[in-house]
Design a protein that fits this description.
single chain, about 100 residues, mainly alpha, about 70% helix
């Protein structure tokens, strides 16, 4: 493989990681949590796992993980701007962020 092909593969992989992380985190703020059925109809173990994964994705975005991923995959994105756009889109309040991060 050439250097350009390697760069394109890493860039594509990096973008997919960010896309899926943002998508998973957005499920914390949607009514259906990404499922086509209401969460109350899901088995408890599946719902708990799904909520934990969504919370971890959200905390990854809000913490330094986003900067590290952008740096690792050498993407030309501004982590703070992505974070602010996400928070604005889902109208995330500072107290919600504090509540999620304090739960561990």
């Amino acid at each position: 493989m050439s250097q350009n092909e390697n760069y394109m593969m890493m860039n594509t992989l990096g973008m997919e990681v960010l896309i899926h992380t943002f998508r998973d985190a957005s499920h914390l703020f949607t009514r259906t949590l990404g499922y086509t059925v209401h969460p109350a109809l899901l088995p408890k173990n599946k719902l708990d796992r799904y909520l934990r994964e969504s919370k971890e994705s959200y905390l990854f975005i809000q913490g330094t993980g986003l900067e590290l991923a952008i740096q690792f995959y050498q993407l030309d994105y501004d982590a703070e701007r992505l974070r602010n756009c996400f928070n604005y889109l889902y109208k995330v309040k500072h107290d919600k962020l504090h509540h999620l991060s304090s739960q561990g």
